Amino acid sequence: MDVLALVDFNLVARHGGVGRAARATGRPKATLSRRVVELDASLQMRLFERGERATWQLAAPAGKPAIAIEPVLGLGSLFMVRDAVRLGVGAAQLPLSLLSHDLAAGTLVSWGEMDAPEIALWALYPSRRLLSARVSAFLAYLKEAFPNGTPEELAAYIAG
User: Which of 18, 70, 139, 151 is most buried per CB count within 10 Å?
Assistant: First the structure.
């Protein structure tokens, strides 16, 4: 991994974009962009969301406000995103099951709810007749741990 690429990535992240980082540091915009792309490739993940500006449509008591967002960080795990939000990096759309304890404790604040499809958990197996003991035990555990399938049940499970 190229240390200079990490330095340039840090500049771009701190300044909120390639153009801003280039103006603030006097470094060429093309160089900063190329180094971030090289770092993306070496880590085999996309570090920044590039392209059009997006908005979040919220369902809040005051109506349906739209919040313009400018993504600056992409992470491969919802747990990592939650931890970044806890550290004050920014805002995120996350499932209630990951946030219920933080919301109850006042560590994080909800700006409203998003219209999103429900998340379903599927357990696929070839046949009930040929079900192994392990699969049977796992299905029984799921039924016991999440009898209603609510986000609160999942949050309680995650919290341990």
Answer: 18
- Domain extent, residue 58, equals 54-114
Per-residue pLDDT at 46 exceeds 80: no
Residues 77, 101: one domain?
yes
Identify the DSSP state of 54: E
48-81 pLDDT, tens digit per residue, is: 655 555 677 776 666 677 777 777 777 778 888 8
Q: Which two tokens stand for residue 36?
A: 């971030």
Report d(CA 42, CA 6) in Å as an integer.
11
H or E, element range at 103: helix 96-105
**Tally of domains within the chain:** 2
Query: What's the pTM?
Result: 0.51
Any domain includes 67? yes
